[in-house]
């Protein structure tokens, strides 16, 4: 019986173990986790979600404090249109995060950065251009475009000297989304170097509606594989979402995928950026504890633990410090929902907002516990300790288990 190690992901003459660790923000896919994937011969992602916050944690910078101080006068104002990012400081934070990660890289693998289009930051095109360009400047091996169609993202960096050097990929959840992307970028004569096909069982934001259960990753992968072959497009396809065992991965590799992207099992590794107490919440979760809801102000459904503190929390929007989801007019769906609840309950010191959440603050505080559909199986990947907690795993242990396991087995730690 085959295992994942019987296959290789090929970029030209470069061959990699066909395992990609997905880009989980904010800093859950930490530099340490990505570095381990690269050391082991696969691909690791860091995330560019809220990079100034990540930089402040990693390098003791003051990007967030400086921005909060600059816009302190606007805290009580419901109009956030004046709150913008200093693009020079944004580039500096990205340079630090990416550059120091790349300097520490060892092994034959690669490190990519996950870039969300929905982080519009009150100046969508300008901030996206800076984020992409700064990551390329800092030497990132590749950029995965996520959380949006990214129809204009390639054009933002077409003049960058590394535009045709770095690996550039796109996450899609349907053949139609891929076709839209390819048509929009045809004039650039620059195909994506890889396509991540993310199915309905993935964690975090989904490219589906609340009818996600009607879709099947195997079917979507088969459609896109057939399309690529019919169009004579030799672009590696990476299957993602709900791939929990090495045997799951092999089923996609045998069906035409060049690699798999996995994430949920790495959330409970020692290298992942989640606090240890939150990792235990993931271990303890049952299938009934996992839901797909619409509380994200991005407009995308999101899968998470229903015990997430972010659900129902009515905190005041802190756009002066963060503001990563402000659109080009300074609006955010959470601000609208929060102001509505304040108006409805004028005498309450604290309100509850059930339909949306302040994603910036809650992701920063690790209070939005996003996860994949099979997070309830994490308890079966570790051992219950005498104190009632589960033993944390090493990234290498999980990576090797994907790489070498067969017969749907999961290797428990010693």
Structural notes for this entry:
The chain has 414 residues and is α/β, with parallel strands linked by helices. The chain has 13 helices and 13 strands. The protein has an eight-stranded parallel beta barrel with strand order 3-4-5-6-7-8-10-11, surrounded by six helices. A three-stranded antiparallel beta sheet has the order 9-13-12, with no helix packed on it. A two-stranded antiparallel sheet has the order 1-2.
Question: What would a concise description of this structure say?
Answer:
By secondary structure, the protein is of the alpha/beta class. The chain is 31% helix and 13% strand. Helix 4 (87-103) packs parallel to helix 5.
Outline the secondary-structure elements.
Elements: E1 9-11, E2 14-16, E3 19-21, H1 31-39, E4 43-47, H2 51-59, H3 63-70, H4 87-103, E5 110-116, H5 124-137, E6 142-146, H6 153-156, E7 167-172, H7 175-184, E8 194-198, E9 204-205, H8 217-230, E10 237-240, H9 246-253, E11 259-262, H10 276-284, E12 290-293, E13 302-305, H11 333-344, H12 359-364, H13 395-404
Parallel strand pairs: 3-4, 3-11, 4-5, 5-6, 6-7, 7-8, 8-10, 10-11
Antiparallel strand pairs: 1-2, 9-13, 12-13
Helix pairs in contact: 2-4, 4-5
């Amino acid at each position: 019986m085959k295992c994942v190690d019987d296959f290789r992901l090929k970029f030209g003459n470069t061959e990699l173990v066909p395992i990609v660790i997905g880009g989980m923000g904010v800093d859950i896919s930490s530099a340490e986790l990505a570095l381990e994937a690269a050391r082991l011969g696969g691909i690791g992602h860091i995330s560019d979600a809220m990079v100034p916050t990540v930089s402040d944690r990693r390098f003791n910078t003051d990007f967030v404090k400086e921005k909060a101080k600059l816009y302190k006068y606007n805290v009580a104002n419901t109009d956030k249109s004046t709150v913008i990012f200093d693009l020079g400081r944004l580039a500096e934070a990205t340079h630090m995060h990416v550059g120091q990660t790349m300097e520490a890289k060892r092994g034959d693998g690669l490190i990519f950065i996950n870039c969300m289009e929905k982080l519009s930051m009150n100046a969508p095109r300008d901030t996206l251009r800076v984020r992409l360009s700064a990551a390329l400047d800092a030497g990132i091996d590749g950029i995965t475009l996520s959380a949006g169609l990214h129809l204009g993202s390639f054009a933002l960096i077409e003049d960058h000297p590394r535009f045709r050097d770095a690996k550039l990929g796109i996450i899609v959840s349907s053949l139609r989304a891929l076709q839209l992307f390819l048509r929009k970028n045809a004039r650039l004569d620059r195909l994506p170097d890889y396509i991540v096909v993310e199915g309905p069982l993935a964690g975090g934001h989904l490219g589906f509606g609340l009818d996600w259960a009607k879709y099947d990753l195997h079917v979507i992968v088969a459609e896109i594989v057939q399309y690529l072959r019919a169009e004579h497009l030799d672009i590696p396809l990476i299957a993602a979402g709900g791939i929990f065992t090495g045997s799951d991965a092999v089923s996609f590799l045998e069906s035409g995928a060049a690699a798999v992207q996995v994430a949920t099992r790495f959330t409970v590794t020692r290298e992942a950026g989640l606090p240890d107490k939150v990792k235990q919440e993931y271990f303890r979760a049952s299938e009934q504890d996992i839901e797909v809801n619409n509380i994200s102000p991005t407009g995308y459904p999101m899968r998470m633990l229903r015990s997430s503190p972010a659900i129902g929390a009515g905190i005041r929007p802190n756009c002066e410090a963060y503001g990563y989801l402000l659109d080009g007019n300074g609006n955010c769906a959470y601000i609208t929902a929060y102001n509505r609840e304040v108006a409805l309950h004028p005498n309450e010191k604290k309100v509850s907002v059930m339909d949306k959440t302040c994603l910036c603050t809650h992701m920063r505080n690790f209070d939005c516990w996003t996860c994949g559909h099979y997070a309830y199986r994490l308890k079966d990947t570790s051992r219950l300790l005498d104190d009632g907690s589960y033993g944390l795993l090493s990234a290498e242990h999980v990576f090797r288990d994907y790489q070498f396991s067969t017969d749907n087995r999961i290797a428990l730690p010693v």
